[in-house]
Amino acid sequence: MIDVFFQYDFLRNALFSGMLIGLVAPLLGVFLVVKRMSLVADALSHITLTGIAFHFLLATVFVGLAGVDPLYMGMAFAIIGALFIDQLRKIYSHFKELAIPIILSAGVGLGVVFISIADGFNTDLFAYLFGSVAAVGQTDFYMITIVSLLVGALLILFYKEWFFLSFDEEQAKVSGLSGKWLDLIFTVLVALVIAAAMRIVGILLVSALMALPVAAAMQWAKSFKQMFFYSAVFGEIAVLAGIILGFYLDLAPGGVIVVAAVLILLLSIFLQKLNRKSFQTKYAEPDAG
């Protein structure tokens, strides 16, 4: 069933790209969930959509841009959005979560305006919104690989610092740890992963890949490191199921990936409830009398 994915370049690119995204997106999602910032991914995904729409708008004016990959503009907007979120979190220091709806709203508003001026949706934009196996080219695979390697390297390099900041930001700052640049680097990484993942999962669904595998992992993990392991495993299962089933059933892979992640989460919750019920029944004290 999976052999066909090794016979065609575009399918092979989609499969390997998806496996990389299924690994790095949940790993970053662990920190986002622990820091209660999972909606940052939503905000940045909408800003990425704005960048894609802006590219299509410019392409109607400058014909030469039609041959340029909109991914670059989307990535640039995602990074700009990450910088704005970082600044807004400083301005609203006591209400840091306010930065997320501000950027999300700005992204949606500008995106709709750009799409309207560019004469509405087209096939390419639809593929960016919901993902497409056929849309993943060799260049996309290389870019996703570079982003994945960058994420992996920085996670290893700053793991202890981000761990400290995630659980006790105030104590980390008192200890002399500079959260300013570390938070900025992390937010930019999230922006890059979102921009890179939109080919596979779609802009409107990519944030789910950062949250749902982590939510399922929380049902099983007994430690922070185990959360990384289970999140990566569940992310990979969801992505592989989404890409393969999406191809054979002719469905948008992004939607199938998210549905698979939801099913993994529901199954995890159900199995854990059964385990707890079984444990309570096994060790319950016998009735008196």
Written account of the structure:
- With 289 residues, this protein is an all-alpha fold.
- The chain has one domain (3-206): ABC transporter involved in vitamin B12 uptake, BtuC.
- The protein is built from eleven helices and no strands.
- The chain has helices at residues 9-34, 40-61, 70-91, 99-117, 123-130, 138-167, 169-174, 179-197, 206-217, 224-249, 253-283.
- The protein is globular.
- It starts with 8 loop residues before the first helix and ends in a 6-residue tail after the last helix.
- The mean pLDDT is 85.
- Its main location: membrane.
- Belongs to the ABC-3 integral membrane protein family.
- It holds the Pfam family ABC-3.
- It is found in: Cell membrane; Membrane.
- It comes from Geomicrobium halophilum.
Lay out the secondary structure:
Layout: H1 9-34, H2 40-61, H3 70-91, H4 99-117, H5 123-130, H6 138-167, H7 169-174, H8 179-197, H9 206-217, H10 224-249, H11 253-283
Helix pairs in contact: 1-6, 1-8, 1-9, 1-10, 2-3, 2-4, 2-8, 2-9, 3-8, 6-8, 9-10, 9-11, 10-11
InterPro entries: ABC_BtuC-like, ABC_TroCD
GO cellular component, one term: ATP-binding cassette (ABC) transporter complex
Protein name: Zinc transport system permease protein
CATH architectural name: Orthogonal Bundle
CATH topology name, in short, is ABC transporter involved in vitamin B12 uptake, BtuC
| CA-based shape | globular
- CATH H-tier superfamily: ABC transporter involved in vitamin B12 uptake, BtuC
Family: Belongs to the ABC-3 integral membrane protein family.
InterPro entries: ABC_BtuC-like, ABC_TroCD
Subcellular location: Cell membrane; Membrane
GO biological process, one term: transmembrane transport
